[in-house]
Amino acid sequence: MEDNSIKGKIIKGIAGVYTVKAEDGGLYSCKAKGVFRKDGVKPVIGDNVCITIISENSYEGTITEICERKNSLIRPSVANIDMALIVAAHKNPDPNFYMLDKLILHFKQQDIPILLCFNKEDLVKKETIDYCDQYKQSGIEVIVTSAGEGQGVSELKELLKGKTTCIAGPSGVGKSTIINALQDNVQMETGDISKKLKRGKHTTRHSEIIPISHDTYIIDTPGFTSIDVFDMTADELKEYYDEFKPFEQCYFMPCSHIHEPKCGVREALVNGKISNIRYDNYCHIYEELKKKKCY
């Protein structure tokens, strides 16, 4: 590293200009060296980088090196994630379990730990909620919050401590409200719910890393509005359902757990040992993957 170079992390990127939070705490506006384009490499949010300082007065620099990534996502383009915080709302909008399970699968493919947050608890009666227990039964960590009321925020903050977390979920579920409740430095724009469509308006226009504390960051990104079918075969899908594994003593092997007789997973489903929400979505995604193969 050159004498006028310093290490840092990309916390924002808009139109080829990257904001790098340097080791000294300074925020530098940087462009990337042309060699990255030549090599087909593009800096992304979350990258740990080396920058050469052009001007200390105006905090300008050039990204000269991108450090090895722990992991990365293509859409949205983010890197070095410790955990995914998937947010749904109890109401306004109602939970879209199919999208939730696709998001869970998206992060499981990358081997990224998941925390599932059901927000807006103040809008529902607790006794009407059984899906939280179904997801907990599936081995997924779940927290319930009402961020607008401040409920569950301190518990959530403790679960995020020491991690760089990517927040994901459909619009209108309260992601920006959660980010605002977790810290005071960056206040995100929050959106209203469309009365006609019962969906939220998109308020995040670019990806950004927001510090929660000195060692805790949250990545807000506009890239999770829809999740496409995955780069896997239908037969590989079951490998990402950890809750199936204890019951896979099926008569026919390999077993898709869809139509075969004497299937241990479907028997566990009948006995209430596997979430019917998760299993139904598994079947839908399985069929989606089979159709994709046909094309």
Description of the structure:
It is a single chain. By secondary structure, the chain is α/β, with parallel strands linked by helices. It contains seven helices and 13 strands. The protein has helices spanning 34-38, 97-109, 131-137, 153-160, 175-182, 264-270, 276-294, and strands at 5-14, 17-22, 27-32, 48-55, 60-66, 72-73, 78-79, 83-89, 114-119, 141-144, 164-168, 208-213, 216-220. The strands form three sheets. Strands 10-9-8-11-13-12 form a six-stranded mixed sheet, with helices on both faces. Strands 1-2-3-5-4 form a five-stranded mixed beta barrel. Helix 2 (97-109) links the parallel strand 8 (83-89) and strand 9. Helix 2 (97-109) crosses helix 7. The longest helix is centred in the C-terminal third of the chain and has 19 residues, at 276-294.
Short description:
It is built from seven helices and 13 strands. The protein has helices spanning 34-38, 97-109, 131-137, 153-160, 175-182, 264-270, 276-294; strands spanning 5-14, 17-22, 27-32, 48-55, 60-66, 72-73, 78-79, 83-89, 114-119, 141-144, 164-168, 208-213, 216-220.
